[in-house]
Amino acid sequence: MKNFFVLFVLSFIVSATFSQTLFTYATQGVSRDEFLRAYNKNKISSADKSTALREYLDLYIKFKLKVKAAYDMHLDTHPGLKNDLVNFRNQIVEGYLYDEKEVNALVQEAFTRSQKDIHIAHLFIPTGKSTAAVDTIKIYNDAQDAFKLLTVKHLSFGDVAEALKRQSISASWSDVGFITVFSIPYEFENIVYQLKPGQISNVHRSKNGYHIFQNIEERKAAGKMKAAQILIAVPAGANDNEKNTAFKLADSVYRMLRTGAEFGEMAKIFSNDKMTFQSGGVMPEFGTGKYDQAFESKAFSLQKNDEITTPFQTSFGYHIVKRIDRTTIPQDKNDTDYLYFLKQQVQQDERILSVKENFLKEILKKLAFKKNTGIKENDLWRVTDSFVLSDKKINTPGLNERTLLHSFNNNKVTVADWLQFAKNYRNNIELDKDESNQELMKKYISITAFERYRQSLENYNNDFKYQLKEFKDGNMLFEIMEKSVWSKAANDSAGLIKFYNQNKDKYRWNESADVILISCVNENLAKITAEQIKVGKSWKQVMEQNQADIQIDSGRYELDQIPVQSNTKLSAGMVTNPIVNTTDSTATFVKILRLYPANQPRNFEEARGLVINDYQNFLEEKWIEQLKKKYPVKVNEKVFQTLIN
User: Fold this and answer.
1) What is the CATH number of the domain that holds 560?
2) Phi-psi region of 7 (alpha: psi -120 to 50; beta: other; left: phi over 0)
3) What is the pTM of this model?
């Protein structure tokens, strides 16, 4: 209830801006812009704009009065609310640490690329970090020669790789198979998706070497596959007899499957895939570019669910694959669920780094980043290496632990801060990527800049500040409503009975019925159970036989609350047809015991829920009257009229 309530009230809450004051309460004012911001978030449906604005103004004034009362009660200091705010801040802050437009551009790019799969070939000539400059030039020339053999001589990738090897050039090639978006590193994906079918890329230099790609062919995106497999493994280096034995076993299992053996049971008995055999061979859903080319080709060739492949071989052994389900890639550019999925993928992929690098430049400007240009880098790297390796602190003229390294606004970062970071980083095998000190310094500046920006984001981003205030005030509103209205009404037994007696004539039944409500885990069980009750079996007998799969309740319900098919005419003794709940596939039906006409009085217990609700409204109205006296409200009608015109 709390989360729902907070989300509801978020539409009311904004932060004040310096503009025309629409209304004041106590000593505080609410600007025209603040009110409009709230109104535009949650407009009241009305044909008359003036009426809609007036109604919303009344709601907004009440909201501000309640929150003011909550602050005066110091609810903002409540440990639970403070902790909620910290947790909420941590949840949303990452979404403000990049440019949303750039991220959306990457999402749209990913959507376009996801619509097709590309079959690629790849030639690779490696370079090492320690490769001398003269050797690097030679390797570059070798790569250019390979490109000419591919594009001028029209040799195959395999032939070119062999030709290079004959010249003692380290080279390899592979028929990668089909790939799609997110299948390969982003720098390579950018190359491949620029190629037309049959086209060969120019030589591309990466940190590991030189690459040449070819777009062999394209196809419409194959989508996602849910499958199960039985793997009869063939160890690396197996001889022909071992391979033949594995094939015969795979063929035998296949024949058993064809004659009715259950796939999951066969997987548990025979499959050597340690990750899936216990689950009956069921694999995580996969798409193009996830597994071996031969495996994917066979899996995606299955045309219908439950169809199985004949045994086929990969480098792992012999596989039998069963198709469970296949989903296509959405083609609607406005499919919000798919776009959200792609956004999650983008944010977890290396392509987000370019967005963060661009955003870092903005952050450094906002934080007034200033580097100490008086430090000689060679001295700093020498001191760094000494400290990382031996904890030894070298005293160098003009450079010690207290020396300013750089600053963000008034926040100073010293050499000591840097040395500790470098030592911790270098000694962590999971973090250290053997970067140079220059590269590590760039990373350090980025990390410290983002951290300082994150800590003080409210000072730089109004939307973030508004969202935090919305959440904080929403939580406080919930707490004060709980204290002043909801729990007060629910726990005031004497007050509830008095209120009921004063308004007894208001609490009457519409057309209603005494019913037995029966819920089953699925539609088939519901149909069987309904038939049993129709022919005279008691609901108690039904319940005793299926306690785990059937739930039964009884009571008096108004007819529009009873789950029946539309236009069903109810009568005493009838058993209705089951209604399926689309969210969980459960099914519900009822047996009508007795029907009642409309306008019969409800006793206190029958009306209790309605009485509590009305009593809460009564208490809230009295409370609002008190708040208006405590915090006098004055509306500037001239400013209000500018909202209408």
Assistant:
1) 3.10.50
2) alpha
3) 0.62
